[in-house]
Amino acid sequence: MLKIASIVHGICLSLLIGMVEGIDQAVNPTLVGRLKLSPTELDKIKLLSQDSDWTFDYFASDFHNYSPGGVVNANAATFPATIGNGMTMSWLTLGPCAMLPPHYHPRASNYVVAVEGTTETFMTLENGARLVRTILTPGKMTIFPTGSLHTMQNTGRFRCENATLVSALSSEDAGTHNVANGLFGLPSEILAAAFGDSPVATQFAALAQNIPAVGTGASEGSSECMRRCEGGPSF
Could you give the CA distance from residue 218 to residue 195 in angstroms, rounded to a whole number? Predict the structure, then answer.
């Protein structure tokens, strides 16, 4: 339990220093709109008239990196062919100790399977639900139900290596809401009341200023992991 508490504490601290889940911009808003209004699938295919319209290259995205990492989504915004098919497929990359900050998807459940490395995940579904912790190694999968608060970190447990995962969401427009950005976007007096008017409420303005703008999707993880990996991989 102490180990879990330490990791969760590190994750909370990272909210103030890392980049948060990226926002996807529509590559062709006009086409997206026309596809959504198409009466039949045949009409959609006519709009997606080139073979290239049916291929998505994850590695071509600027979000594909391991420094510290990134999330590349094939969804309604980035890959219009997904419209009407009810799924987003994402490629997740996490450098040593990198993490995805706590967030939730308001319109989709999330299946995540590890391809390489060791990734530790935490999830809580709702008030009263216990904290679910999993360790994903290649071939292992976990599920984050719709609206559940979750986070994951490349623990670098054995070699401080990179971690790669594939994520499937049950909507082509799943949405992502990062907890830190949403929480500190509320009026300060509301936040203070939610924290029981604790003296720490006087620091909310400063904390909010330290939360970075939306980036590639990943951030540096817990200080404990970072210290352990400072010397590089231990083969």
Answer: 27
